[in-house]
Design goal:
Length: about 100
């Protein structure tokens, strides 16, 4: 899927049952499918942090997907946070702790 527009960056913190359910890999696959670059990592407090770069349309679709999560997840809250200036312009990476 290709979405057009000037690239922008967004950050998210996702809370709920989002660790141990494949959420990071879901975020990576979804980002790649939508043409969104970025990185995702688990947080020590049980949340997941995602930073993404892409067109506004692609990021909107990405956010909708993050709010749903993979089948085993239960997303209780998604909060936008300041974008990480190190968010890559290409590729989507799953980071270790």
């Amino acid at each position: 899927m290709s979405m057009t527009g000037d690239p922008e960056a967004r950050g998210y913190v996702v809370r709920g049952r989002v660790q141990g359910v494949g959420f990071r890999w879901f975020a990576q696959r979804t980002g790649v499918r939508l043409g969104v670059a970025g990185h995702v990592r688990n947080l020590r407090d049980g949340g997941v942090e995602v930073h993404a770069r892409g067109s506004a349309d692609a990021l909107q679709a990405f956010e909708v997907a993050l709010r749903q999560g993979p089948p085993a997840a239960r997303v209780e809250m998604l909060v936008r946070v300041p974008a990480d200036p190190r968010t890559p312009e290409a590729g989507f990476f799953v980071e270790a702790w």
